Amino acid sequence: MVTQKPGTDDSRAAASRTDPLTLEVVELIGSVVARYYEEYEVAAGKHALTGAQARVLGLLSLEPMPMRRIAQKLKCEPSNVTGIVDRLEARGLVERRPDPADRRVKLAAPTEEGLDTARSLRESLDFAREPLGELSREERVSLRGLLQRMLGQGGAP
Hints:
- By secondary structure, the protein is mostly helical.
- It has two domains: 23-124, Winged helix-like DNA-binding domain superfamily/Winged helix DNA-binding domain (Arc Repressor Mutant, subunit A); 126-157, no CATH class.
- Helices cover 66% and strands 10% of the residues.
- It has a two-stranded antiparallel sheet with strand order 1-2.
- Helix 3 packs across helix 5 and helix 4 (67-74) packs across helix 5.
- It is globular and about 50 Å long.
- GO terms for molecular function: DNA binding; DNA-binding transcription factor activity.
């Protein structure tokens, strides 16, 4: 076992992960995520959808995509996505179509009804939108950059 001298980069990094401010920020992020998912489940239920179905429909409303890519974005197994898309397809909200770039690949794409449902879902999610509306544009840009950095997406330094 290697022990670090106090004041070294590794010991400072370890301390910063457990300092009270970091723990409070982690707790606040957890609370935001929990409230967002809770509201998302309620909004999805109003359309007789599960939260997972609503999230897939929301993704597909941005662009059609293959199951594997949906699974990557949702961080789940492709077989789970297949079942979700099957149920959305049975409801007439999604359809499968060949990928024009590779006819061997099937894309899941929203139908007109699916696009309408996704739009309605987005409009009903007030929890995230309303508090963000109270922030100035500069604050929202700063928050976006910080979140991108946290996710390793290269936001502003």
